[in-house]
Amino acid sequence: MSDRLFAATRKGLFEFRRQRAGRWAVERVSFLGAPVSQVLADPRDGAIYAALDYGHFGVKLQRSDDGGAGWSEVAAPSYAGVDVDAEAPPSLKLIWALEIADPDAPGTLWAGTIPGGLFYSDDRGESWSLNRGLWDQPQRKGWMGVVYDQPGMHSVSVDPRDPRRVAVAVSTGGVWETADGGASWTLGGAGLRAEYIPPGQAQDPVMQDVHRLVRCRAAPDAFWIQHHNGVFKADGGIGQWSELAAPHSTFGFAVAVHPKRPETAWLAPAIKDEFRCPEDGKVVVKRTTDGGRSFDVLTRGLPQAHAYDLVYRHGLDVDAEGERLALGSTTGGLWLSENGGDDWVQAPARLPPVYAVRFG
Amino acid sequence: MARIAFTAHLAAVGPTEPSSYGGATLAEVLDAVGADYPRLKSYVLDDQGRLRKHIAIFVDGLMRPRETALAVPLDDASDIYVFQALSGG
User: Fold this and answer.
1) A58 close contact with B: CB closer than 8 A
2) Is 2.130.10.10 the CATH number for A94-353?
3) How close, in Å, is residue A279 to chain B by CA atoms?
């Protein structure tokens, strides 16, 4: 069970600790005032990484080697020298995903970024290299900006059986997979459907606005997607998907899958596009335990009147046991569950807008 | 040598007082400052070496266009101020 939770917010990184059953409290605040786009607690060496978006002064990466008491700036992924002859040479806009690359090789990391590049580090973030195998894919030219005007890689999922197998998702740019550590890439996504593009192109795998891609740890070929206009599930890798019928809106950003049970997943629905807030002002979590054939709508402990909390794509996390859940919103709400989502307790804090929550 | 001062927002990564550095252009002066403050340049320039979008450069009392500010010729009497635009909430 995880007793530590990080909330990366628009104005700082908040570390919560569990004090007793149902009771979590702020243990530490780091980078108060600075937007923190992503956080990673690395169990291999105890390091904590925090990706900062200083706006005027650019994107920075910080690492703590003492549990969050002290931080030092390490290198940020860099597009220096990449496509310098392009009309608008690329530049790092955001670190959106931070993941452990090889569990058996301490210090190896993946970073997914806006404008879409995937970066690798083998020295704890001291240096980064752009993955050219994916960047140089001809179809990358068809990636589009949706959220921040440029395409963004928000999900990087390493196969626990083989760290050379990595799946990524791009908004928009579909889902991609490598089996050789990033040298070559395959476009997946058959069965995904985009209803926001011209007729005849709805099935185009590059046009898919995948909001979040997650994988079951115990069944690594089982994936879930929260897509712009639907919820999809794959049982045999990212190549082939099935669309699920879910109650409430099928719009949302976040999805989490149980680490041991591939048929159990949680969603944080919202009304789509022009509203982007919970239906009827009620914050709910949808849970399926049968692979999406049916869903429970979980409400106990969540606000059920005039609540306009939107949950971003990294705003829902489940711990390694599949028991504890965290839900963080753009209104600064943070709720925790210790029984798989049946009951929720609001954390004793009114946070800045939450970008990511992460146990670790 | 030109005199260069930075916004107080950069105090953690650059000189806190106006300082003198040699260089025929702002790009050269920033290289010289960067030798003393290795983190500073990445706060003022992006990863392609362009002036960041919300950085404002004043040379001798005039705000310089972002596209050309790095190449403005300097002399020993030049006064440079590196500011940031205000925005956000």
Assistant:
1) yes
2) yes
3) 28
